[in-house]
Design brief:
alpha/beta, TIM Barrel, 8-stranded mixed beta sheet, 30% helix, 19% strand, globular, catalytic activity, Wyosine [tRNA(Phe)-imidazoG37] synthetase, radical SAM superfamily, rSAM_sf, 4Fe-4S
């Protein structure tokens, strides 16, 4: 079967066997992260709308899931920021009503969580994996290069808001860029923010394919283990220390 909006299943080192859903296939995002293995953001946007018809996504999911595949998660991921899609809740509702045996995950940059209306749309998702790559504003601007008017305080406030208004699991992902967000000052700030956000798990990741900027190098396993020891016992290192290939990914991201 050929599908336009779902992909996989793929074996994810974080989520096991995962079926991906790409709600923004043109790479629409609120960030233009320097490490993104998909390349530069194709369309920089903060407008929430139905970028692709939810009914078409639901139709594809129904066709695939009728075969009862073995999955650990169905994951909103792919080429852009999934919460920009205004009808993500309709798709979640369909899955919960018709295929409740499957757990749902969301990979997100957390840029819209300060809006409680967004949290209402994703509250039935089982696992949310938000990114937090910086706590200091200058570092945030360097790494994530957000759409104008977004600050790191917006992101942190949104994640605290998520913890207070969401009953599912939160696994916070921190992507380490050596020489940028691994300083003693930044790690100390991360520790304070983590205490406020209160995730069930923190995952440290690093580069394993070329990003947007060619000067970025992956963190070493030793460096990540040292950071993990500083941040506490909820932290696990998930970085891949065997680079997969020396080119940007042609695959969707999970």
């Amino acid at each position: 079967m050929n599908f336009e909006y779902i992909f996989g299943p793929v074996l994810s080192r974080r989520l096991g066997v995962s079926l991906g859903i790409d709600l923004l296939p043109n790479g629409i995002c609120t960030f233009d992260c320097i490490y993104c293995e998909r390349g530069s953001t194709a369309e920089f946007n903060i407008e929430r709308k139905e970028y692709i018809p939810a009914k078409k996504v639901i139709k594809e999911l129904d066709r695939f899931l009728k075969r009862k595949p073995k999955l650990d998660y169905i994951t909103f991921s792919g080429s852009g920021e999934p919460t920009l899609h205004s009808k993500i809740d309709k798709i979640v509702g369909f899955l919960k009503q018709n295929y409740s045996e499957y757990k749902i995950a969301l990979l997100t940059n957390a840029s819209l969580f300060a809006d409680k209306k967004i949290l209402d749309k994703i509250k039935k998702i089982d696992l949310i994996v938000p990114s937090l790559d910086a706590v200091l504003e200058s570092t945030f601007q360097t790494i994530n290069r957000p759409v104008s008017n977004l600050s790191i305080n917006d992101i942190i406030d949104g994640l605290i808001n998520l913890d207070k208004n969401y009953t599912g699991k939160i696994w916070l992902e921190i992507f380490i860029v050596p020489g940028v967000n691994d300083t003693k000052k930044e790690i100390k700030a991360f520790k304070k923010a983590i205490n406020q956000i209160n995730p069930q798990r923190i995952q440290l990741n690093t580069l394993d394919r070329p990003g947007v900027e060619n000067w970025i190098q992956p963190a070493t396993k030793k460096n990540l283990n040292q950071i993990a020891a500083t941040l506490g016992d909820k932290v696990e290192v998930v970085g891949n220390f065997k680079p997969r290939r020396n080119q940007k990914s042609k695959n969707k991201v999970i």
